Each structure stands twice: as C-alpha cells, then as structure tokens.
Amino acid sequence: MMLKVRPFLFCLLLLAVASLALGTKDPELKRCKHQCRALQQIGEHQRKECYEMCEKYHSEKQSKEEDTSTFLPYRGREETGEEEQYGEQERENPYVFEDKHFITGIKTQHGRIRVLPKFTERSKLLKGIENYRVAILEANPQTFILPNHWDADAVLFVAQGRGTLNLVRRGKRNSFNIRPGDVIRVHAGTTAYLINRDNNEKLVIAKLLNPVSTPGQFEHFFGSGGRENPESFYNTFSSEILEAALNVRRDRLQRLLGQQREGVIIRASEEQIRAMSQHEEGGIWPFGGESKGSVNIYRQRPSQSNQYGQLYEVDGSHYRQLEDLDISVSFANITQGGMFGPVYSSRATKIAVVVDGEGYFEMACPHLSSESGSRGRQSRGSERETRIGSGYQKVRARLRRGMVVIIPAGHPVVNVASNNQNLQVVCFNINARNNEIVPLAGRNNVMSQLEREAMELGFGVPAREVEEIFRSQQEEFFFQGPGGRQQHQEGGRADA
C-alpha cells in the first residue's frame, strides 16, 4: 500500500492545481495544504511530503506567467458567440461550483468523499452560509464505509443507488435500507456506517453539513481503523489508558488497532453485505419518539406539477427531524426542453446540487453589479453613496451532473433543461421556515396581482399592456423553455 503513496500524492497535486488556478495567492496554498491535511490514507511522513509539494508548486507558479488556458470555461460541442458569452460570465461567477472546486478528502479504489471548501473562500458574498459545507459520497457496488462520526449535523440525500445505513446514538443502533430520493438527518456525534448493497450501481449521497464545533469546519472521527488509512482515534491514547478502559491486555490492543490498512471505503463479501442488509425500507427512528428514520421525497405529492416538470418538497411538517435545523429539501424534475421559473425565494438560500441531466441557469444578482460599479466609482473618486436599484448582473452558467449552485434569498432565478434530457436538481434550503417561492411569470405571478394604478406607475405604460403581458402565460412555475418554444415556432412555420 505504501508503495502507492507517491503516485497518489502526485494525483493529489494535480487535483490541487485545478482549484489553485482559480484563487488568489494565499488561499491557493491554504487549499492545497488542506487537501493534504484531510487525507486519511497517508501517514505523517507522507503528509509532510505533500505539504512540501504544495509549497514547491506554489513557488514555481508564482515565478511563471499565468497560463490563460487555465481559465478557459467549460465548452460545449460548438464554439459559438453564445459560448463566449457563457465564458465571460462563468469566469467571475462565485455562485457556481464544478468538479474542480471540490477537495478529495477521502479516496480509495472503491470510492471517494469530495468536499467543497468553505463558501467564503470563494466569495464574501456567501458569508450567510459560511458555516455550511457540502460533501458528495461515491461508493462502488458491494462496498463498506467504516464507522465514523462527524462534529456536524448533517442532512443526507440519496441521489443514486441502494444501500443500508446504520446509526448508533444514545446506546441504540438503528439500521434501515436507503434508496434514491431518501432524505436522512444525522445528528452530530452519531456513529454512522453504511454499505452499498447493489451488485452493479454506484451509491451516491449528497450531504449538507452544519459544523457544531469549529464554525465552517468539520472532521471525520474513526474509531475503527488502524495506525493509518484510516488512523483510529483509539491509537491516540496511551496504552495504559486503553488497557484500563477496555480491561484487556496490551498485546491484544496492539493487534486490534494495527490490522486495518485498506482505507475508509473497502470491499465487503456477499455474505457480509447480505447480513447487514436484512432491514425494511426506511425504518423506525428510536431517538425521540415516532418520527421516521428517513423520508422519501419522490413519494411525496408534488407541490407543483405540469407537463414541463414537477417540484417535490420535504420540510419539518413531513419529516420532524428537520424542524430544529430550519432546513428543507426540494427536488425539481424539469422536463427536457422545459424550464422552472423565473422565481425567487423569500427567505431561503438554496444550495442546489445537479443530480442528473444538463441545462443552464440564469440569475439576477445586484451584488456583482454593485461590486463592479463601486470599483468604477472608486477609480473615479466620486459617487460615494450607494444607489438603490442601480442594476443587476446576469449570472449564467451551464449545468451538468455533480455541479453545485448557490441561489441567495430574494434573487430571481430560472433553470432550463436541455432539449435532449431532463434536468434534475435537489436543493438544500437554508432558513426554510416560512419561506415562500414567489413566481415572477405564469398564472398568479406577483406582477399580475398589482393594482392597475400600481402597474401604470411602476412600468410607465397603460395597465392594459402590463396585464396582457403578465397574464398571457397560463402555466404555473414550469414552462416550455426557449429551445422547445423555438422548435414549436419553426414547426408551425414549416406547416404553413
């Protein structure tokens, strides 16, 4: 295993390079070292080498000119003027996170756990959610994730695959089978372990974590394990302490805590998988009454639905475990060629994870506009007062599986699915209590509710024109997107 350390560190550095190219000098080095520190698979000597490689790369990078190709955005199949527009807007987009922004905290040949850095490392505009972290677990078929606990409350969403989750808390163990669409709350300090019980499909779980110890930072604590890969926290204690606490001889302790070297995510036999999978779907939660251990968002009645998409929501009224977190979970399935919005959330900031499909989103952001405007005013040395409603920056980016998008409260946004597949997005909604999704188009949109005099004064045109425009769309929330609409119009012209 140790012979593989140096190639692994080289791969780690390549991962770091992708993310370093996006930051400023100090955060670059800090992020690379954080990757080294987060790795469970290596010992202290290899960790020191990893730090040195970060320092060396950072030093060499500073001595060279910036390679502009590093900043090229994702390209589609065609290089068009529209692609250039995407490129310019994606370069300065603090709300979109791609694969290159993730840190690979744990990795074995059987799976990995990727974590986004603190949101404020990307932009101060995300300060409102700086204490939250996002992680993605990917486990290959027939694998076992070692028991561990986190110093963070967590909400899990099963995006793909089937597994069995075991939680140990307050002297009791609860085991239940999980499937796509399941939402599970895991309390901080709960010992958790799970298996991917499928023979073919990878298990993918998106996690929202709210650290309870150090704001914005969380750690995995492994009781099982060995001296490294992963290191068991039992090995931290002196031998005499463990002998007294566990009432066993030292030689037995040394054998117990020196065997596991295969990593956090390991292969399990069919017999072991079968033995740990004998549970009902879902399960009853033994910690605090009758609340279920999980809830499946796909089995809820959609809050909005038509031929262009469906919206499913789970909050504290559906799943009591979410009440004290002030978090809800929503899932949007946008039909190919359709779109959701424009809408805005009255209170909640959405941390959206693309589960499947492709498309794009657009959002109106006053903060980016005011930032660029303030830089210009400072350079001219005038206009110190902030102008309300002075403008908005269009934030626009392509969406594909695995991407994370932040949508702050109050920001108008629209998601559009591609013309060849559905776009599926799960949202962790922060500050969800009393949140309202406000429609800006379609039946019952907010503008159609204004008085006629308010319409005339607000838009400077007769109220009749405002009504005709804002009351012409009869669908609600989900609509035919620009691509589908264009195809329909072209088909109509061809028939004519």
TrEMBL record:
Keywords of this entry: Signal
Residues making up the signal peptide according to the UniProt record: 1-23
Organism: Nicotiana attenuata
Protein name: Sucrose-binding protein
UniProt cross-references to InterPro entries, sorted A to Z: Cupin_1, RmlC-like_jellyroll, RmlC_Cupin_sf, Seed_Storage-Functional
CDD domains from the UniProt entry: cupin_7S_vicilin-like_C, cupin_7S_vicilin-like_N
Residues of the Cupin type-1 domain: 101-254, 295-467
Source taxon at top rank: Eukaryota
Region (Disordered): 366-390
